[in-house]
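Input sequence (379 aa), recorded before submission:
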Amino acid sequence: MKAFYQDYRLGILGGGQLGRMLIQSCVNLDVHTSVLDPSPIAPCREFASQFQQGSLTDYDTVYNFGKRVDLLTIEIENVNVQALHQLEKEGLQVYPQPRVIELIQDKRKQKQFYREHNIPTADFVLVDNRADIANHADFLPAFNKQGTGGYDGGGVRRLNSLAELDQGFDQPGLLEKYIDFDREISVIAARNANGETAVFPPVECVFDPRYNLVDYLLSPSSASAAILQRAEAVARQVVEAFGIVGLLAVEMFVTKQGEVLVNEVAPRPHNSGHQTICANHVSQFEQHLRAILNQPLGDTRLKSPSAMVNLLGADGHSGPVRYEGLAEVLAIAGTNVVLYGKKETRPHRKMGHVTILDSDIPRLLEKVEQVKRILKVVT
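Predicted structure, token format:
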């Protein structure tokens, strides 16, 4: 078997910011990277050993790309799984495995998987279209989720009653019972081919209600020790049930009664793990690389409490990007700015993040508000 630090070539489907940060870990282990992405100006283009522009959902493009690498991974789930199945049949290592990606691509199958494996999750019913939603009036209020295609807060709508039926999705999906939760947390878990698993400490996600995107997160979560232990145990249960090789982000609700319920998962590095680059002994990106290369998993312990603020494109700004207030934020002690290299901004587009380290939690929260107030993504 070829050593990963020699002429080994890792293929990455997707050339966005997750791929870009994964490449930075690849450089440290001398892993050469080939990236496929539909955009000619993808953030990975200037950093990959080899870059190919092409569709991630076209069978032939993905298949032929995979034939030129030694191992294939993803930074986005919306890829042609049929091509991945064929590559795997022909002997290529594809991690996460195609069967895992295929299952997670469909939220209907994902929720049924939790039920079949006794993984705690909110109650749900499958629906085929808008008319089918009307058959479940007694299940409302609930969240109507598209079975496929939703991403970054899209594909989810709250329906309080049948009076809002016209806002439901007229396609296969599900109704997920509304949960009056106390907080949302996330646990990044990893598993290698030897079956070794490791989890990062749970983080607390604070969402922007306007965009349904993470505004900022806190690490570690301020939930009780019992809840955090339960969250880590559930994350291990989920990663073992999937049998995934690679990284799995497990997003969870904590109810006001102290229950921990799995919301959704992502089989790749995740927005809720970016702070690990600075705040943990191993980053989520290095951990993903260790897992898919079947190397010993890294130390997930915290080096410092931290926060991560998402940098989103400002309302009313579309075009060449400009970062207003960058120097002022860089002058704040403990801040680490990561810009994603996207040439164009648009409202609510993820353009970067700021990690803040501080052992004093009230002071950490003050710095979060400073960063949010000062740093703007404009044109």
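Checked by second reader. The longest strand covers residues 181-191.
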